[in-house]
Structure formats: structure tokens, C-alpha cells
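Section 5: illustrative case.
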């Protein structure tokens, strides 16, 4: 049989964001993640934190070949012209001290700015700094992480019984987390804090992870995007070539090209007006160029470091 008949068709996106893969954890859905990476091509790949679960590796070393295969696939994307940016999270925070360095073609950046195809400015960060429990009570966080792992193990047996009884998959750990966080309004407060931060950064979007709760929705004129995870939800945020944002969620019972794949598109109200998505006036081109250069140089576009870009803007306006 020919390779073209056996290989699944490639899904092409301008940008892909994934987070919370937790490589090194027994609960990482590495096989599903590897399949996703194999059938996906993109210009920009953002790894939005907790890619390697150093906490789990400290408790007990677990690193099967499949986890190495995932890393090799990520590094291989750089050879195909994909720009790979790693945004460390709390489980792999030791990489934060290597901010702005490039290893094996992967750029480490604690808080990159991404410009979408339709000109929107997106802040990308893991999000743990906005989790009051993680930020201020590390002992509680480690205990919570251990309890979460226990729930995941119980979940395996729980769903085995459900399948035997003819029922579908149901996440006990997700249910427990949702009930607890609903009481303390954790998810809502987390989202609100991130949206406020995006506004401080004069951003149209914010892309994060951390709470394993995939979401794409508009909050107070800011598009809030949470990548979810590759432990339970198997989800990703993608940008199409026209700038449209979509959340893909495969779940335990989903596949990559079947009807069970859940797609959630951003609200139409969050999209830029058509005239803003194009080139437009020279002033608009200059502003867009300023953001693009600032992003590549990893500087704030409002800083004095953008003086050279201002000269370009003046020349464009003069023309």
C-alpha cells in the first residue's frame, strides 16, 4: 500500500497552541498528542507551559519511549519551517531562567506576543502567576497535585466499570475539580485576572493554560483562550490563515478527523472588521509593522527601543 494511502491528511494552520502535556507523568496522553503533531502543520507552534512534568519526575521517574517521540516530533517541526516557542509553566518553571534563549531550534520565552493574521495582538503565558494558590501556597499546590494524580488513577478503574456497564467515558477528576472550583469561583476569577492583564498589555487576546479547562470566549472585549491539556481533554487552540481562532477538543473518545471531534470557534464579535484585517492606510501599515518588529525583537512596542521602527513609520506616512 502506498504511503499516500496510509498517511492521514495534514491539517494546516497558521498557529497552534498546546499546553499542559505533562510529559513524564503516567497520565500524559502521549500517543494521542503524537498523532496530533503528526497530522498537523503550522507556521507557529507555541508550547504554553507544563510541557514536561518535572514535579512528577521528581516523585518517580517515568519516561517511556513515546514521550521521547513527542519531543523529537516537536524538534522536527523546526526543520519544516515552523517557529517553535516554549513558554514555561509551574511544572517546568526551571526553564524560566533561560528566557529568550534558543535550544535546538526552540525559543524559550516567558511571555511572547503573537500577532494574528488579521492584526490582533495576543499575549501568551502559562497563567500560573494568576493562580493565588500556586503563587502563594506552594505546599498546598503540591498536595493538590498529588490528589489530582490519585483522582486520575481512580478515574481509570471508574471508567472501566462504566464501559463494562455500557456507559461512555466520564471524568471523575474533572467533576471533582469543577465542583470545588465552582464553590470558590476559581475559574471565573482566574479568567478575569488574565483578561485584566491583557488589557494592561493593550492586547486583543490572551492565550494560556494551567487550569486544564479548554475555553474560547470573549470576556469584556478580550478573547480569552485556554489551551486545556493533554491529560484529560486532549485539546488545542489553533489560528487559521485568515486569523480566525478555534478550539479543538478530541477527548478520550474523540479522533482527529471523525465526527466526535469538538470544534469551538471564537465569537464573531471578537473578529476585527474586514478593513482592519487588510493593509489599509500607510499609518496602519506602519503600526502593524511596529508590532511585528517588536514581537520579533521581544521588546515592548511602546518602549523607546522602537525608535528605529518609528523612522520606518514616518517614511511610510510620507509616501
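Designed sequence:
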Amino acid at each position: 500500500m502506498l504511503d499516500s494511502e496510509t498517511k492521514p491528511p495534514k491539517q494546516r494552520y497558521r498557529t497552534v497552541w498546546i499546553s499542559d502535556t505533562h510529559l513524564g507523568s503516567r497520565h500524559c496522553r502521549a500517543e494521542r498528542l503524537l498523532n496530533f503533531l503528526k497530522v498537523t502543520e503550522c507556521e507557529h507552534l507555541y508550547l504554553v507551559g507544563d510541557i514536561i512534568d518535572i514535579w512528577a519526575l521528581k516523585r518517580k521517574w517515568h519516561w517511556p519511549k513515546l514521550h521521547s517521540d513527542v519531543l523529537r516530533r516537536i524538534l522536527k517541526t523546526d526543520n519544516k519551517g515552523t517557529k517553535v516557542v516554549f513558554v514555561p509553566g509551574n511544572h517546568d518553571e526551571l526553564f524560566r531562567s533561560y528566557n529568550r534563549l534558543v535550544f535546538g531550534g526552540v525559543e524559550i520565552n516567558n511571555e511572547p506576543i503573537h500577532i494574528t493574521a488579521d492584526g490582533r495582538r495576543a499575549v501568551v503565558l502559562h497563567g500560573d502567576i494568576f493562580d493565588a494558590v500556586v503563587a502563594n501556597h506552594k505546599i498546598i499546590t503540591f498536595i493538590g497535585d498529588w490528589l489530582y494524580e490519585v483522582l486520575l488513577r481512580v478515574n481509570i478503574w471508574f471508567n472501566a466499570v462504566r464501559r463494562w456497564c455500557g456507559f461512555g467515558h466520564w471524568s471523575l477528576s474533572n467533576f471533582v475539580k469543577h465542583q470545588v472550583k465552582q464553590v470558590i469561583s476559581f475559574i471565573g476569577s482566574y479568567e478575569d485576572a488574565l483578561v485584566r492583564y491583557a488589557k494592561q498589555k493593550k492586547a486583543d487576546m490572551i492565550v494560556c493554560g494551567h487550569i486544564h479547562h479548554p475555553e474560547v470566549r470573549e470576556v469584556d472585549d478580550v478573547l480569552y483562550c485556554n489551551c486545556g491539556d493533554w491529560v484529560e481533554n486532549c485539546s488545542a487552540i489553533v489560528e487559521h490563515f485568515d486569523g480566525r481562532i478555534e478550539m479543538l477538543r478530541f477527548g478520550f473518545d474523540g479522533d482527529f478527523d471523525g465526527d466526535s471531534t469538538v470544534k469551538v470557534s471564537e465569537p464573531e464579535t471578537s473578529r476585527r472588521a474586514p478593513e482592519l484585517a487588510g493593509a489599509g492606510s500607510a499609518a496602519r501599515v506602519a503600526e502593524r509593522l511596529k508590532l511585528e518588529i517588536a514581537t520579533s525583537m521581544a521588546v515592548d512596542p511602546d518602549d523607546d527601543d522602537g525608535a528605529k521602527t518609528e523612522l520606518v513609520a514616518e517614511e511610510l506616512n510620507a509616501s
